Hints:
Elements: E1 7-13, E2 46-50, E3 65-67, E4 87-91, E5 95-99, E6 105-109, E7 115-119, E8 150-157, E9 163-167, H1 173-180, E10 198-204, E11 207-213, H2 228-231, E12 240-246, H3 252-266, H4 268-271, E13 275-280, H5 287-297, E14 303-305, H6 314-326
Parallel strand pairs: 1-3, 2-4, 9-11, 9-12, 12-13, 13-14
Antiparallel strand pairs: 1-8, 2-7, 5-6, 5-8, 10-11
Amino acid sequence: MFGFTDETVIETASGHGGSGAVSFRREKYVPKGGPDGGDGGKGGDVVFAVKENLRTLAHLTSKTLFKAQDGEKGHGRRRHGRDGDDVIIEVPPGTLIRDEQTGEVLKDLTGEQQRWIFLRGGKGGKGNWHFRSSTRQAPRYSQGGVPGSRRRLRIELRIIADIGLVGFPNAGKSSLLNQLTNAHAKVAGYPFTTKIPNLGVFSTGERIITLADIPGIIEGASQGAGLGFTFLRHISRTSGIAYIIDVHEENYLEAYGKLHNELESYSEELVRKPELIIASKMDLPKAQQRLQQLKEALQGKEIIGLSVFTGEGMQKVRQACMRLVES
């Protein structure tokens, strides 16, 4: 996901309506024909379209103004001016559109194949043909087109997934994602190898489950520390949370509490979601002993021991993810 961008500001403008034409019929044997000015064309609309295979807003950063085409002005012989083309702004599923000045949420584009007309183009003006009457047989004026609208927007991406993987840096989230799904997240033996949210999917029976791996959280993430703050919003749409705890870290018994507190500080809705705790790196020494201690410290919580290296617990994790989504 090169060039990942999850927030940007753009200017949008719909097209102006074309002016009506001032024209008179002129033929060889009709030197003083009546008015025949046609109407102006309608201005183009500003349209947002959800594109399923998009995962970033990076394509919107290459320009700041998205403007629809103006309508063409009318022609003689009562010919209508051409309508302006719409400007289509493609966005990923999970895009939130806000007014840049007020912060008001204007639209939450969560569905696939969804289109939303944000700004309508201006109507075209009437040609002088419309203004003829028995007392005004040669009107020399027409109606101007209606101007388009202009708005400045803040575009935010909140990734849609069934389960969000949450943990401290180097806890094994990306390894789990790669093992369970078709993802190819970067894995290395040092913290913060995950710089952007990664998505992966796997199926259990007829159900397809989407996992989101966000950059590792550190204490203070909900106040802006580390890489986690920017991406915490990406797990706000998930059905459930899977906490990944490395049982070989010194603070493994306090890890769940600290992670839980960071999520709660960011949004209380996050900690009300169904949850699952996965104890990672069970292939290393003393892992079974530490897993038992973790279960005693967090009585009543579902905790599954997992080794991505040996495959221990992988099937249990799949089944637990299914229960988590169905709950």
